[in-house]
C-alpha cells in the first residue's frame, strides 16, 4: 500500500513540476525592468525567452518576438535548449509513469517490468528537473552579470551619469525554480517506489521427498529388471528377516 501511495504521489508531484516548466518556458517575464532610481515609470519593459514586451501606464502592451536565432547570445540559446529538453524528458517520463502504476493492470505485465518502468520514469523526471533548474540558474546569472555591469557604467567616476535600462529577476525564474524542484522530488519518489515493486527472491532450499514403502521401489530400468526388484523386495519374511530368493522367483 505504501509503495502505491509513494508511486502515485511521485507521479502527481512530477506532473505538477512538468506543468510548471511548461508555464515558465512560455512566460514573458523572465527579466523585468528595474525601476529603482529610474525617473521614467510610464513605460515598463520585460523580456522572455521568445519575445520582448513593452507595457505603458495607459494599459497598452506591445510584444515583439525575436526574429533572429543566430543573433541571440549563446547562453540565451542554451537556456532555451535546456528548458525544451526538460519538457520533452518530463513528458516521456509522465507517459511511462502512467503505464507503470501498480494499481493499473495492462495485460500480463509483471511487477519486475513495472519496477523497471518506474525507475526509468523517475530518472527522466530527475534529469528534467535538473535541466529546468540549470536553465533558470544560467539565465539568472546572465541577469546578475548584466545588472552589475550596467550599474558600474552608470556610476563611473569623472564621467557624466548616463541612464541605462537594467533588468532584474522576473516571475518566470521563480516559477522555473519551483517547477524544477518539484520534478526532482517527484523523480526521487518514483525511484524509491521502484524498490517496493521489485519481487522478493525466495531463500528456501528445495527439499526432495522420497516415498518410503515396504513393497514399493522407484528404480528406473527395463521391465525385466523392475520385475526382479519387485520380486526381491517381496521376499522378506514377517519377522523382518530377509529370505533370499530362489531361482523360481525370477520366472
From TrEMBL:
Name under which the protein is recorded: Claudin-18
UniProt xrefs under Pfam families: PMP22_Claudin (PF00822)
Transmembrane segments: 81-101, 122-149, 169-198
Compartment(s) where it occurs, according to its Swiss-Prot or TrEMBL record: Cell junction, Tight junction; Cell membrane
InterPro entries linked to this entry: Claudin, Claudin18, Claudin_CS, PMP22/EMP/MP20/Claudin
Signal peptide: 1-23
GO molecular function: structural molecule activity
Any GO CC annotation of this UniProt entry: plasma membrane
Domain of life: Eukaryota
Family of this protein: Belongs to the claudin family.
Membrane topology: Multi-pass membrane protein
Residues forming coiled coils: none
Keywords: Cell junction, Cell membrane, Membrane, Signal, Tight junction, Transmembrane, Transmembrane helix
4Fe-4S found in the keyword field: no
Amino acid at each position: 500500500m505504501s509503495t502505491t501511495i509513494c508511486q502515485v504521489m511521485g507521479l502527481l508531484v512530477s506532473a505538477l513540476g512538468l506543468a510548471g516548466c511548461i508555464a515558465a518556458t512560455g512566460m514573458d517575464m523572465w527579466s523585468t525592468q528595474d525601476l529603482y532610481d529610474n525617473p521614467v515609470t510610464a513605460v515598463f519593459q520585460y523580456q522572455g525567452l521568445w519575445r520582448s514586451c513593452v507595457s505603458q501606464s495607459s494599459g497598452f502592451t506591445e510584444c515583439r518576438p525575436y526574429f533572429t536565432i543566430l543573433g541571440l547570445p549563446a547562453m540565451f540559446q542554451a537556456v532555451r535548449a535546456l528548458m525544451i529538453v526538460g519538457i520533452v524528458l518530463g513528458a516521456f517520463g509522465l507517459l511511462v509513469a502512467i503505464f507503470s502504476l501498480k494499481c493499473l493492470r495492462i495485460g500480463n505485465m509483471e511487477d519486475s517490468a513495472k519496477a523497471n518502468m518506474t525507475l526509468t520514469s523517475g530518472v527522466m523526471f530527475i534529469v528534467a528537473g535538473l535541466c529546468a533548474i540549470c536553465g533558470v540558474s544560467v539565465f539568472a546569472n546572465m541577469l546578475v552579470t548584466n545588472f552589475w555591469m550596467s550599474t558600474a557604467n552608470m556610476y563611473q567616476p569623472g564621467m557624466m551619469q548616463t541612464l541605462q535600462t537594467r533588468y532584474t529577476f522576473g516571475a518566470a525564474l521563480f516559477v522555473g525554480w519551483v517547477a524544477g524542484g518539484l520534478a526532482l522530488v517527484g523523480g526521487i519518489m518514483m525511484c524509491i517506489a521502484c524498490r517496493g515493486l521489485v519481487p522478493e527472491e525466495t531463500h528456501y532450499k528445495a527439499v526432495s521427498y522420497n516415498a518410503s514403502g515396504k513393497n514399493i521401489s522407484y528404480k528406473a530400468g527395463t521391465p525385466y529388471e523392475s520385475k526382479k526388484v519387485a520380486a526381491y523386495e517381496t521376499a522378506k519374511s514377517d519377522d523382518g528377516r530377509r529370505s533370499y530368493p530362489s531361482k523360481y522367483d525370477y520366472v
